[in-house]
């Protein structure tokens, strides 16, 4: 489908997709490690690259009702997590526009 | 002492109205004076004089005419005497004096009258308080000519005349234009009007335009290539790149099915006779023709760059880049004997005739990761993950940056080397205007001759001096800080693929780019508006190429495994050149 454009991140602490090693995000974008995804622990990041977003859907999560879009790795199309589009409770508004990546789906590049 | 006001010299200020033209912008006196100058320039002196008698308006006052004559005949002393009466104010008189004396000195040197020239230098130029550097370089010319005396002696009358005409143009800045009308003023005004008409017509795309003074130039949309011409289905998978050779006789395409095809462009503007350049199990990403159209490079996903001959379509050399390298760009130097291969971390220069497979030269890259690179003369333009477009000059290692607003996925240089388009990941294209002379001289050591500094040649002598006085500026200091235009594709969502745009058309007047929504858009380079939106491909349009010699032909490579071409309707009806 055309030549995929893969962005590369510079820095020492990079998270990559566990299946295809495409760069996803950087340690500097990490906001919190205390989240629960569908398959265990998940991290909250402010910005992620090399992902495409699926359609918006409303989901009832542990913290309440949210509108989210699933994120897919552009190279291997595996679901890495989701992006918060709208949060319906005031205390959850800080998550809007940020990404959740599941710990099982990403790995650290190199040893750090 | 201020010179007399020109209108006080001429009469005829009462009577007929003072402004002409439908908008009342043209001053009648000026109009008649310019007409008189044009008549004299055409050789009709008697007609000009008759006009002066009849209208009562002289072209220029006596002292201005005398000054002009003095300069053109080379009697510089007389010109110096007349200077105070024609100069605009005292401030510029020094500069005018310097120019006159310099020309006198140079002519003396050229004609071998060195004693006279020395006298000018010592007694007349010295007291003018000119910069020491300039005086020294003028003196150096005297020494140079002394040694190569043979070549100095014969300076033809035509060259003298030319030099004096150039001097008059330079002096214009110091003189009041109302006293001494700039040379060829009417022709200059008419040409300005014609150029404006050309620029105003958004669709202007023909090589041979006949501009007439009788009616305004109108170019219609039939000059844009919007009529589908061919659909070539010779590839079995997505086509990723397409390119025309500089001489316009060949086209090459690279595809995901691992093959690169070489097409011949016929006189009937059709791409025919595909020959296989390359067939590999891994997709072929890039093709690039050399500037002399004899060689073509292909790059595949197995990180091997291959060199092929165009006429025989045979493989000449291969340059493997290392297993996980990933070639992002290949680009030729203007000499057609060296090319640049850019991988994610490295820019390397190779020669076509080199012995081994190692690069001739490895260049430091200022980006952590390189996304695209292109060669412009002696300068390399590269773009990387830090959103900077870096210009690095090979001769002195100078590097300058332009900051882009988003991540750049690909670069394209226009054939005239004046414009650069950058494709952003946010689905838009930016057009940047590059300062002239950015490429500069070619790479040292490739045998190309440098700019003519041959000592002993008489006309470069004058050129050298004129360059010294003017002070040349480095184009690297004049890089733009903002793009000229931003062209948006319909989709606002960030795109996933690398799309290649191009600049083309008769005067590089158009920017074309394909998009993921399967449409090919053409924008005007001058005004920035979208002129055409072509449909036809059934997949993402990956690359677009505009024919460099024939502005009515455009081709695109698409994900539906086709290469499509479009022609301009005016060309199909045989009206365009």
Short description:
The complex is a heterodimer of chains A (112) and B (577). Chain A has 112 residues and is mainly beta.
Cα shape of chain A: globular
User: What is the percentage of strand-forming residues of chain A?
Assistant: over 45%
Mean pLDDT of chain B: 82
Sheet with the most strands, sense and barrel status of chain A: 6 strands, antiparallel
InterPro entries (chain A): Yippee, Yippee/Mis18/Cereblon, Yippee_fam
Organism (chain A): Chlorella vulgaris (Green alga)
Domain Yippee (chain A): 13-110
Pfam families (chain A): Yippee-Mis18
Fold topology:
The complex is a heterodimer of chains A (112) and B (577).
Chain A (H helix, E strand, L loop, with lengths): L13 E4 L5 E4 L3 E8 L2 E6 L5 E11 L2 E10 L5 E9 L11 E4 L3 E3 L4
Antiparallel strand pairs in A: 1-2, 1-9, 3-4, 4-8, 5-6, 6-7, 7-8
Chain B lengths: L5 H4 L9 E2 L5 E2 H15 L2 H11 L6 H12 L2 H11 L3 H21 L3 H12 L6 H16 L1 H5 L3 H15 L13 H16 L26 E6 L6 E6 L5 E6 L3 E7 L5 E9 L4 E6 L5 E6 L3 E6 L5 E6 L6 E6 L5 E6 L3 E5 L9 E3 L6 E7 L2 E6 L3 E6 L5 E5 L4 E6 L5 E6 L3 E6 L24 H13 L14 E4 L12 E4 L5 E5 L5 E5 L5 E5 L6 E6 L6 E6 L4 E5 L1 H4 L5
Antiparallel strand pairs in B: 1-2, 3-30, 4-5, 5-6, 6-7, 8-9, 9-10, 10-11, 12-13, 13-14, 14-15, 16-17, 17-18, 18-19, 20-21, 21-22, 22-23, 24-25, 25-26, 26-27, 28-29, 29-30
Helix pairs in contact in B: 2-3, 4-5, 4-10, 5-6, 6-7, 6-8, 6-10, 7-8, 8-12
Keywords (chain A): Metal-binding, Zinc
Pfam families (chain A): Yippee-Mis18
Family (chain A): Belongs to the yippee family.
């Amino acid at each position: 489908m055309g030549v995929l454009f893969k962005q590369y991140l510079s820095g020492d602490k990079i998270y990559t997709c566990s299946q295809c090693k495409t760069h996803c995000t950087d340690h500097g974008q990490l906001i919190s490690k205390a989240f629960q995804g569908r398959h265990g622990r998940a991290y909250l990041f402010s910005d992620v690259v090399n992902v495409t977003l699926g359609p918006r859907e409303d989901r009832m999560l542990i913290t309440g009702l949210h509108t989210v879009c699933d994120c897919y790795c552009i190279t291997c199309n595996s679901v890495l997590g989701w992006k918060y589009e709208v949060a319906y409770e005031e205390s959850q508004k800080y998550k809007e526009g940020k990404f959740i990546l599941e710990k099982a789906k990403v790995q650290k590049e190199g040893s750090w | 002492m201020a010179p007399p006001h020109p209108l006080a010299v001429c009469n005829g200020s009462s009577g007929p109205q003072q402004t002409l033209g439908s908008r009342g912008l043209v001053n009648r006196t000026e109009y008649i004076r310019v007409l008189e100058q044009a008549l004299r320039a055409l050789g009709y002196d008697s007609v000009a004089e008759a006009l002066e008698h009849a209208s009562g308006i002289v072209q220029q006052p006596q002292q201005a005419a005398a000054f002009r004559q003095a300069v053109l005949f080379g009697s510089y002393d007389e010109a110096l005497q007349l200077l105070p009466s024609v100069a605009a104010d005292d401030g510029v008189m020094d500069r005018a004096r310097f120019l006159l004396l310099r020309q006198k000195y140079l002519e003396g040197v050229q004609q071998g009258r060195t004693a006279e020239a020395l006298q000018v230098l010592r007694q007349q130029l010295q007291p003018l308080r000119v910069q020491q550097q300039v005086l020294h370089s003028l003196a150096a010319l005297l020494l140079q000519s002394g040694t190569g005396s043979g070549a100095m002696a014969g300076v033809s009358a035509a060259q003298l005349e030319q030099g004096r005409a150039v001097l008059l143009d330079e002096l214009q800045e110091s003189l009041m234009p109302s006293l001494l009308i700039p040379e060829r003023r009417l022709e200059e005004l008419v040409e300005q009007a014609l150029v404006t008409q050309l620029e105003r017509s958004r669709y202007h795309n023909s090589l041979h335009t006949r501009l007439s003074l009788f009616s305004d130039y109108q170019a219609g949309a039939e000059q844009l290539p919007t009529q589908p011409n061919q659909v070539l289905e010779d590839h079995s998978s997505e086509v990723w790149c397409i390119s025309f050779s500089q001489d316009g006789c060949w086209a090459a395409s690279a595809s995901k099915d691992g093959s690169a095809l070489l097409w011949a462009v016929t006189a009937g503007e059709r791409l025919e006779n595909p020959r296989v350049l390359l067939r590999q199990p891994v997709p072929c990403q890039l093709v690039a023709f050399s500037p002399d159209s004899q060689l073509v490079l292909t790059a595949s996903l197995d990180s091997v760059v291959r060199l092929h001959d165009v006429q025989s379509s045979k493989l000449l050399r291969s340059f493997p880049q290392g297993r996980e390298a990933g070639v992002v760009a290949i680009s030729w130097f203007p000499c057609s004997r060296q090319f640049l291969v850019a991988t994610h971390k490295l820019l390397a220069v190779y020669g076509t005739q080199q012995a081994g497979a190692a690069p001739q030269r490895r260049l430091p890259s200022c980006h952590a990761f390189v996304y695209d690179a292109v060669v412009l003369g002696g300068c390399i333009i590269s773009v990387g993950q830090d959103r900077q477009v870096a210009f690095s000059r090979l001769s002195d290692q100078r590097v300058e940056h332009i900051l882009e607003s988003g991540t750049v996925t690909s670069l394209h240089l226009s054939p005239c080397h004046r414009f650069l388009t950058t494709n952003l990941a946010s689905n838009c294209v930016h057009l940047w205007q590059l300062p002239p002379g950015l490429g500069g001289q070619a790479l040292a050591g490739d045998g190309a001759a440098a700019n003519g500094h041959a000592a002993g040649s008489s006309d470069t002598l004058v050129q050298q001096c004129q360059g010294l006085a003017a002070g040349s500026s480095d184009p690297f200091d004049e890089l733009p800080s903002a793009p000229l235009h931003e062209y948006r594709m319909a989709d606002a969502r960030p795109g996933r693929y690398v799309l290649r745009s191009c600049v083309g058309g008769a005067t590089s007047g158009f920017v074309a780019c394909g998009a993921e929504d399967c449409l090919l858009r053409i924008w005007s380079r001058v005004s920035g508006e979208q002129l055409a939106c072509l449909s036809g491909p059934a997949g993402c349009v990956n690359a677009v190429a505009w024919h460099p010699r024939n502005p009515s032909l455009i081709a695109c490579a698409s994900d539906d495994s086709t290469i499509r071409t479009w022609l301009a309707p005016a060309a199909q009806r045989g009206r365009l050149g």
